[in-house]
Task: inverse folding
C-alpha cells in the first residue's frame, strides 16, 4: 500500500514511512492511494472474532508489506490486551434502536487509546534496528495528550513534546499527562487555545530544517496510522448489530474530524453505513461546512466539552481531497486560501459527495444536558458530555436503522460537568485513582514558535 499527500507534492511513502513521517513534507496529510474493500463475506466472517483479530483483518490491507500478518497480530494482541473490558469496545443498548459504543476502556479512559496503544508499538517496531530517534510533537485539547504519553513513556528512541492550552483542559486530563515523569515526556502548557497549539505543531513540520534535524513525528490524527486503527471499531460494532445484512448509523462527537473520518473510511471499505452524524458543540465550523458549504473560522468558545473546542479540523482536508477527485494541486490552493483568510467554500462536488453519507448537528448546552439525563434515567448510563453531544444528535435523527453513539470518554474525566448535568459524581476508576496525589511536571510557555522550538531544541535527544 502506498500513501499520497493530500497536497500532491510530498514523496509517496509506504505504511512504515507514512507512520514515521506523521505529516507530509508539503503540509498535506497522508492518505492511502486507493481504498481497499472487504467483501460482504469477509465482513460476515468478522462475526464472533475478538477485537484484536477484527483489527488484524481490517488493518492488514493498509499495512502492505511493512509488517507480516503475524507481526500485526502480535502488536494488536499486546495493544488491546491493556484494555480493562474483555470486549475492548463494548456496545451498550440504551433504547430500542439507540446504542452506545464504549471506547473508553483503555489506560487513559478515552477513545484515543484504541489507536495510540497500537501506534506506540508501531513506532517501537519501526525504530528497532535503526539509529533513528524520533521527536514526537503533539497538540491536545485534553485526551490525545495522555493517551500518547501513556503509549510512548519510557521508550528509548522517542521523545514526546505535548502542547496543551493552559487552563483549558480539566484537572484530571492535565494530571493524566503531567504526572508521567518519564525522562522522555515533556509537557508544555501554552497560552492560547487548541487551534493555536495545533498550528504550532504544523508550523514545526513545515519548517523542514527543524523537522529533519529533530526527526519530527506526529501522534495526532494527522498521522494516518491513528485513523486506520479507529476504522476497526466501526466494523466491530456494525457486525454485532447485523452487518453486512443490516446498515447502521453512527453519531460521532466531532472536533478534529479524525474519528468520523475513520467511519467514512469504513464505509468506503464496504461497511454498510447508513449515515455518519457529525455532532458538534457550539464550535460549529463543521456543521456549517456540511450543512451550508461554509468552512469559516469563528472565535473558539470554551465549553464543558473541551476536547471538541476546535475550529480548524485537520482531517477535513482528507475528506475534501477524497471528494474532490483527489486533485492535490486544487486542494493545496483551496487550503492555502483557508490558511490566508480563515474561510473557504466547499465546491459543489465536495458538498454533494459529503451529503451522500454525512449529516451534521450543532448541539448546545441544554440539549447536551437533556441527553445526559435521558441516558441516566432511561438506561442507567452516566455518560460524559462529549458523548452527550453525540447522543443528543442521535436522538434527533430520523432513522430506521440502529444508531450507534460513540462514547469517546469515561465520565470520570469530566466529573464536574457530569455532576452538573446528572447530579451524579462518577468516581475515578482504580487505574487512575491516586492521580491527585502524584507529583506534576510541566513547562508553561508563550504560544510562540520560537519559545516552543527553543524548548524542544534544549531538551530533545534527537539524532539526525
Ligand atoms: C472525548 C472526545 N470526544 C470527541 C473528540 C473529537 O474527536 P475528533 O477530534 O476525532 O473529531 C475528542 C478529541 O479528539 C475527544 O477527546
Ligand atoms: N480532542 C483532541 C484534539 C486532538 O485531536 P487528534 O485526534 O487529532 O489527536 C484531544 O483530546 O487532544
Result:
Amino acid at each position: 500500500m502506498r500513501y499520497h499527500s493530500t497536497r500532491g507534492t510530498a514523496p509517496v511513502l509506504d505504511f512504515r514511512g507514512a507512520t514515521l513521517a506523521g505529516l507530509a513534507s508539503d503540509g498535506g496529510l497522508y492518505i492511502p492511494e486507493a481504498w481497499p474493500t472487504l467483501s460482504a463475506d469477509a465482513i460476515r466472517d468478522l462475526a464472533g472474532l475478538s477485537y484484536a483479530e477484527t483489527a488484524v483483518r481490517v488493518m492488514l490491507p493498509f499495512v502492505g508489506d511493512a509488517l507480516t500478518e503475524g507481526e500485526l497480530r502480535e502488536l494488536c494482541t499486546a495493544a488491546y490486551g491493556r484494555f480493562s473490558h474483555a470486549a475492548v469496545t463494548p456496545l451498550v443498548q440504551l433504547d430500542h434502536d439507540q446504542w452506545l459504543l464504549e471506547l473508553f476502556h483503555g489506560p487513559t479512559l478515552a477513545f484515543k487509546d484504541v489507536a495510540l496503544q497500537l501506534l506506540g508499538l508501531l513506532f517501537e517496531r519501526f525504530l528497532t534496528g535503526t539509529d533513528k530517534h524520533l521527536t514526537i510533537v503533539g497538540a491536545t485539547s485534553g485526551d490525545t495528550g495522555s493517551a500518547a504519553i501513556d503509549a510512548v513513556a519510557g521508550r528509548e528512541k522517542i521523545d514526546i513534546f505535548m502542547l496543551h492550552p493552559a487552563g483549558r483542559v480539566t484537572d484530571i486530563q492535565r494530571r493524566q499527562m503531567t504526572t508521567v515523569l518519564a525522562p522522555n515526556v515533556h509537557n508544555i502548557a501554552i497560552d492560547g487555545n487548541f487551534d493555536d497549539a495545533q498550528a504550532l505543531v504544523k508550523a514545526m513540520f513545515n519548517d523542514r530544517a527543524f523537522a529533519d534535524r529533530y526527526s519530527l513525528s506526529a501522534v495526532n490524527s494527522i498521522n494516518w496510522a491513528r485513523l486506520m486503527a479507529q476504522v476497526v471499531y466501526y466494523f466491530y460494532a456494525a457486525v454485532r448489530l447485523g452487518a453486512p445484512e443490516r446498515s447502521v448509523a453512527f453519531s460521532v462527537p466531532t472536533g478534529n474530524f479524525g474519528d468520523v473520518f475513520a467511519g467514512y473510511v469504513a464505509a468506503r471499505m464496504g461497511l454498510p453505513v447508513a449515515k455518519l452524524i457529525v455532532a458538534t458543540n457550539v464550535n460549529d465550523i463543521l456543521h456549517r461546512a456540511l450543512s451550508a458549504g461554509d468552512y469559516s473560522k469563528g472565535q473558539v468558545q470554551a465549553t464543558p466539552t473541551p476536547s471538541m473546542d476546535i475550529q480548524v479540523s485537520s482531517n477535513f482536508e482528507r475528506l475534501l481531497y477524497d471528494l474532490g477527485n483527489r486533485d492535490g494541486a486544487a486542494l493545496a490552493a483551496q487550503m492555502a486560501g483557508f490558511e490566508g483568510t480563515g474561510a473557504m467554500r466547499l465546491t459543489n462536488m465536495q458538498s454533494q459527495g459529503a451529503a451522500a453519507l454525512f449529516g451534521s448537528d450543532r448541539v448546545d448546552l441544554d440539549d447536551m444536558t437533556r441527553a445526559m439525563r435521558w441516558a441516566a434515567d432511561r438506561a442507567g448510563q452516566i455518560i460524559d458530555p462529549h458523548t452527550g453531544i453525540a447522543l443528543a444528535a442521535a436522538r434527533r435523527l430520523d432513522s430506521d436503522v440502529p444508531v450507534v453513539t460513540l462514547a469517546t470518554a469515561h465520565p470520570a474525566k469530566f466529573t464536574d460537568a457530569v455532576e452538573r448535568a446528572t447530579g451524579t459524581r462518577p468516581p475515578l476508576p482504580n487505574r487512575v485513582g491516586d492521580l491527585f496525589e502524584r507529583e506534576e511536571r510541566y513547562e508553561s510557555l508563550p504560544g510562540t514558535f520560537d519559545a516552543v522550538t527553543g524548548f524542544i531544541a534544549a531538551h530533545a535527544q534527537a539524532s539526525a
The longest strand covers residues 158-165. The two ends are 27 Å apart (CA to CA). Residues 91-110+224-422 form a domain with the Rossmann fold fold (CATH 3.40.50.1100).
